[in-house]
Amino acid sequence: MGGFTQQIKSVYWPETRTLMHLALPICGAQLAQAGMSVVDVMMTGRHDATSLAAVSVGSSLWMPLMLFMTGTLMGLTPIVAHLLGGQRNTAIRPAVHQALWVALVLGAVAAVLLWSAVKPIFELMNVPPAVASQSVAYLSAVAFGMPGIALFQALRAFSDGMNHTRPALWISLVGLSVNIPANYLLIYGGDGLVDLFGSWVPSSLQQLPALGAFGCGIATALSMWTMALAMAYYTRKGSTYKSVAIWHTLTPPQWQGIRELVVVGVPIGVAIFVEVTLFTLIALFIASFGEVTVGAHQIALSFTSILFMLPMSLSMALTVRVGNTLGQQRLALARKVAWNGIVISVVVAVINSILLWVSAVPVIALYTSNSEIQALALSIIALAVIFQLSDSLQVNLAGALRGYKDTRIVMVITVLSYWIVGLGGGHWLGSYGVGDRVAPLGVHGYWIGLIAGLSTAALLLGWRLQRISIRG
Predict the structure, then answer these.
(1) Has UniProt tagged this entry with the keyword Transmembrane (predicted)?
(2) How far is 302 from 181, CA to CA, in rounded Å?
């Protein structure tokens, strides 16, 4: 007993503090970036309903692209963490440069897709012409920012791998501080400025046109490039990065470095894309259940997504810590670090479950005053309380496995668990039921499918981490 207590004091408690020290700034950065989307929706909603619909529809197209890029570039984090742990600092700079080349290509491809592919998609989706027109304009502006956000995510992955997660928080807040006034100026134009500041606004600015959704897209692109340039400046001037000096000389594209990033990163990007499309497809399936059901589902999803930020941030921090210890060739310690992180994720899940249940009624009331929607949302959140454990477990098990650079199996497990068990099972229960015994469960069936899919992912990822952590 005394030996175990000593081990807690000497290994697990210091590791827990280090992990939380890394995770909390990541969580803040995630919330700040999510805040930009919230601001876009709120400010375009105040302009007119068409602009709001255009931004909402447009976001459903560019966000999955951005998340795929982000996931792919997250492959740089374990690479840098391994090199840093092994004190191979000279190898970090070329690795980062290869990620920057990949980021530029991904950003350019995403921009071209947003310029060329959206009109056919809107025609296929039968989007109303007025909404489609504004959404095309919105996406054409956002497209200019895609290379910028890709470069920011590459530099952020580098900084995270260097155990330096705070810059992403501060720079995300800078991006938000640019987004809000730029939105106000470009969405509402001169009339909006007059409403806000009155006669203090110069006559030249009073003539600015209100650009609506297009202005929102320009503001988003400006924020993206601001974050990229700020991150580039900080990684050049920050004392933490002097041992690497990534801006000293630029390494040309090298196939070996690009291949390593692609092998590690693309499966992460695919896994994140699969998760996003899971929730998108569920939203499409339940659209036929009526406005009350759609509203209740969106409220429950929005609330749980905010709480999910901490487990997800813990997962990203766990990737760094496992990668550092593996780079030091301390395989036994890496195993302890990984499983200590999993234990913390269970504690976080319990806290989230309690918070979700205790605050459900007042939070739902903030979203809507409709009693039908409130009652249905509360019943959905009762199911969401159940899957907090499996959700926190699966994302942190995946984070630990990323620290081992084991991403392809994670991708396979994610696809099978989310799409076959989660989406397939949820659609079956929600739309068809179980023979003559169980009638179709509607939206609750889809959430039960989510519980089953996330639990399957947690079990399979736990099995994978057990095998690979023993093997080292």
Answers:
(1) yes
(2) 25
Vertex 421: Cα angle to 74 and 411 (nearest 5): 20
The radius of gyration computed from the CA coordinates of the chain, to the nearest angstrom, equals: 23
Contact in structure between 165 and 114 (CB atoms under 8 Å):
no
Could you report the per-residue pLDDT of 96-121, keeping only the tens digit for each?
Answer: 999 999 999 999 999 999 998 888 88
Nearest to 417 by CA among 381, 461, 387, 380: 461
458 close to 414: Cβ distance less than 8 angstroms: no
Residue 244 — φ and ψ, nearest 5°? Answer: -105, -40
Q: Find tokens 């015994």 and name the residue.
A: 437
Collapsing DSSP to helix, strand or coil, 429 comes out as: helix
H or E element at residue 215: helix 212-237
* Residues 6 or more apart in contact with residue 349 via CB below 8 angstroms: 311, 388, 389, 391, 392, 393
Choice between 109 and 306, residue whose per-residue pLDDT is larger: 109
Alpha carbons 251 and 265: distance in angstroms, whole number: 20
- Angle (deg, nearest 10), helices 49-73 and 129-143: 40
Whole-number Å distance between alpha carbons of 67 and 11: 34
* Residue pointed to by tokens 């690979």: 468
Helix ranges, 287-370 (H): 291-327, 331-367
Q: Residues 143-176: pLDDT tens digits?
A: 999 999 999 999 999 999 998 889 999 999 999 9
- Measured CA to CA, the distance from residue 107 to residue 113 in angstroms comes to 10
> Rounded CA gap, 117 and 94, in Å?
34
Q: How many Å apart are CA 54 and CA 63, to the nearest integer?
A: 14
Q: How far apart are CA 463 and CA 467, in angstroms?
A: 6
